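Attaching the record inline, Q. Sequence:
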Amino acid sequence: MTASMSGPVTGFLRESWIVFTRQLRMNLRNPAWVIIGLLQPVLYLLLFGPLLEPVISQLGGNKYTWFVPGMLVQLAIFSAFFAGFSLIGEWREGVIEAERVTPASRGALLVGRLLRDLLQFLVQAVILVVLGLVLGMDAPLGGIVAGIVITMLLGGACAAASNAFALTVKSEDTMAPVIQIVAMPVLLLSGILLPMSFGTTWLERLSEVNPVRHVVDAVRNSFFGVFDDSSTAWGVGLAVVLFVLAMWWGVSTFRKENA
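Structure, as predicted:
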């Protein structure tokens, strides 16, 4: 049984790797992808971060240890949500259909692209964390690693959903406004810039139904070295659930006959 299972698993990994290396070569032809994706959170860190001193002092702790996790989540969401745009271009050029007529697993077509997106985020996350440390962030190494892993789960979910939605609508003109409509309230109600507890009661209650807020809390707790808090468990659990659901949607979309 083990031998019979190893064949499909090995084939899936090989096919995912082939798709990943092709996607990576396409990105490396334009190295600006790292800089462009990182520019907004870096500017927030440099220009908005110093303004948090009086705010975060009320909560206690280092302002950059509080702020960098939020910027990581913002970076993951925005980078991942726009991942589907390149897929629309590939579909229009016939690349997707050419891949679909091969024996490659439909899951591998998604996972290979997802690995590219996660690698891009990882590079950007490391740069952002290093900059935070230079500015004075105080976080344990284990907490930083755990926070990045949690954020990668959320980013992977957003990237898979973006690819699935892209293959569904097949139009940048449709996809762009929908992403903006979804992304802005999700980010504004996640507490990445300011604590939601500083807002009105109804706004804080509204933010509690936003799963991204709980993920932000979990990443933030990790950076502060807090792993035994229920909010950390909630955030990690929601990140896993979102990732599984988005992967199911993405693979299902790649399997459709009209994709």
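The first helix runs from residue 2 to 28. Residues 73 and 101 are 36 Å apart (CA to CA).

More tomorrow.
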